[in-house]
Design a protein that fits this description.
By secondary structure, this protein is α+β, with helices and mostly antiparallel strands. The protein contains 1 helix and 12 strands, in the order αββββββββββββ. Helices cover about 30% and strands about 35% of the residues. Strands 1, 2, 6, 8, 9 and 12 form a 6-stranded antiparallel β-sheet that branches. It has a 4-stranded antiparallel β-sheet with strand order 5-4-10-11.
Length: about 180
């Protein structure tokens, strides 16, 4: 019986060619696997970092306790706005140097001149911890009776931002501190 090959040497060459193709395919697959593993590792670390930053933006916030201001019954305006703040549930400690605030009214706008944490608790620390109350004041705004304004508090350390709208009472009857809801 005659084989399709003329000699044993040709048969061996076909086997070596197949082996070379097989080795080339294994090398290509190994390189592709290495690239996929590196990409997966990079994506995993990037996802972890994004998750931590997102959690920080959502959780490391301040909540507004009370907004008060000095009322002027003659001009029906309030000034000297003071805002008490506390940590939101689950927040980490916040440093007052990373906090800024501003009040935006219909005719006026003012940045907080003072961000002072813990003064109401008798603690002189610049850190606001769980259960402590801080104070934002010195906004330099004058708001008319009935005016709606927006308080914006930013924490640059976490990238969080809180916006709270409030309305000055329609009638200001006393020349002393009033609570704004």
């Amino acid at each position: 019986m005659k084989t399709p090959f003329n000699s044993d040497n040709e048969r061996g060459q076909v086997g070596i060619g197949t082996l070379i193709v097989f080795i080339a395919l294994v090398l290509v697959a190994a390189i592709a696997a290495g690239v996929l593993i590196n990409t997966a590792g990079f994506l995993q670390s990037q996802a972890e970092q994004t998750g931590q930053e997102s959690t920080s933006q959502v959780s490391d916030q301040l909540n507004v306790g009370v907004i008060t201001a000095t009322g002027d019954s003659a001009n029906q305006q309030v000034s000297s706005v003071t805002v008490t703040v506390l940590l939101a549930s689950g927040s980490d400690i916040v440093d007052d140097s990373s906090v800024s605030a501003e009040i935006i009214g219909s005719t006026t706008e003012g940045e907080a001149g003072t961000v002072d944490f813990d003064q109401q608790n008798g603690d002189d620390s610049d850190l606001l911890e769980d259960g402590e109350v801080g104070e934002l004041s010195g906004f330099g705004v004058t708001l008319d009776a009935g005016e709606t304004a927006e308080l914006v508090i930013r924490n640059s350390a976490s990238g969080s931002q809180l916006r709270v709208s409030f309305t000055v009472p329609d009638t200001i009857t006393e020349d002393n501190e009033i609570r704004i809801d």
